[in-house]
Amino acid sequence: MRAGVGWKPCAVRQARTGADRESPTGSAFQTGEPVISNHLEDESRIRTLDVLREHGIRRAINLLIQGEGQPCGVLGVDSPTDGRLSTQTFVA
Questions:
Q1: Whole-prediction pTM value?
Q2: Mean pLDDT over residues 5-25, rounded?
Q3: In sequence order, what DSSP letters do the residues of the chain get, joined into one string?
């Protein structure tokens, strides 16, 4: 995690998400497809990261950031509230 708002000081610049397909960020990076979960507590496609559990995160979306010619990262948006995230939540 490079930056964030609302995280405990120990999380920013120290938390790691993983690059494998079971990681939300790794899956988005490897497939190029958004990874959306509106009920992390019931998620079976990806693992819920410890840092998300520790912060009471209930829903998350991870989107590929496309650079010039190749991906350059993943944008992750996490929320402790109920509701629905979708790709329509974000405007290109």
A1: 0.80
A2: 80
A3: ----SS--TTTTTT----SSTTSHHHHHHHH-S-EEES-GGG--SSPPPHHHHHTT--EEEEEEEE-SSSEEEEEEEEESS-S---GGGS--
